[in-house]
Amino acid sequence: MTDAELAADIATEAGKLLLAVQKCGLSGKALCNAGDLQANDLILARLRAERPGDAILSEESADDLDRLNHRRVWIVDPLDGTREFGEGRADWAVHIALSIDGVAAVGAVALPALGLTLCTGHPPALAAANHPPRMVVSRTRAPEQVTAIAEAIGAELLPMGSAGAKAMAVVRGEADAYWHAGGQYQWDNCAPVAVAAAAGLHVSRIDGAPMVYNLEERAIPDLLICRPELAEQLLRFG
Does residue 21 sit within a domain? Predict the structure, then answer.
């Protein structure tokens, strides 16, 4: 099994587990905690069994800085969009990525509630652009800056939950851009970045700098995923 096939297989399996957890009778914080922990256990067990020589950085596990000595590091978010998961919405995701020499080389993003897993092994073709363009934005805390950018470029806003769901909305053609400056961590965007890049989208920091992973600092402050023809225009706001 290739790295891309493994990433997609694990993301899909973890997604099915999370759908089952939603039906176990828990609610609220207990449901979200159970989802986080059970999905994390499954993902780590699979990776350790099938790629024992690789390092792992997971949101739900203590950070072992020995990963800095590895070229290959799996960067995973077992449940991206915990709030949406707990509310029974569809806009949550599972992220499985492989960083090689700091580059998001392989990735899979499962959208379990939609029955979809998008991955670098079989990236979707670039969809047709929306007219007017559409920008995804947080459904609970839409930043004024994104609202201002949308107005400046004549875009409509599409409120949505998790980072993975937002990024995959651009990959799938539901939206045209994801401009984020509110702070994220490596696990929030490594898999989405890998999939978006494989699909032919522009991916960078909001100032055009490359996305770099497996750094000691886990935070990544900002991100731009967009259709290539929008990149120059959106990078002006970085």
Answer: yes
> Could you tell me if residue 57 is inside a domain?
yes
Contacts of 186 (CB under 8 A, 6+ apart): 57, 75, 213, 214, 215, 218, 219, 220
For residues 166 and 24, what is the distance between their CA atoms, to the nearest angstrom?
27
Q: Are residues 109 and 182 located together in one domain of the fold?
A: no
Same domain for 17 and 86? yes
DSSP-based three-state secondary structure for 121: coil
CATH number where 181 lies = 3.40.190.80
Could you tell me whether strands 219-220 and 184-185 are parallel, antiparallel, or unpaired per DSSP bridges? antiparallel
Two tokens, residue 131: 């007219």
* Residue 123 neighbours by CB distance under 10 Å: 19
For residues 146 and 137, give the distance between their C-alpha atoms in angstroms, rounded to a whole number: 7
The CATH code of the domain that includes 11 is 3.30.540.10
Split into its structural domains, the chain has a count of 2
Phi, psi of 49 (to 5 degrees): -75, -40
pLDDT mean for each 10 residues of the chain (238 residues): 98 98 94 97 98 98 98 98 96 98 98 98 94 93 86 96 97 97 95 98 98 98 97 95
pLDDT in tens, 52-79: 999 999 999 999 999 999 999 999 999 9
Q: What is the DSSP letter of 102?
A: T
Sequence-separated (6 or more) residues with CB below 8 Å from residue 94: 11, 14, 15, 18, 39, 77, 78, 79, 80, 109, 110, 112, 164
CA 129 distance to own-chain centroid: 21
Whether residue 89 sits in one domain with residue 46: yes
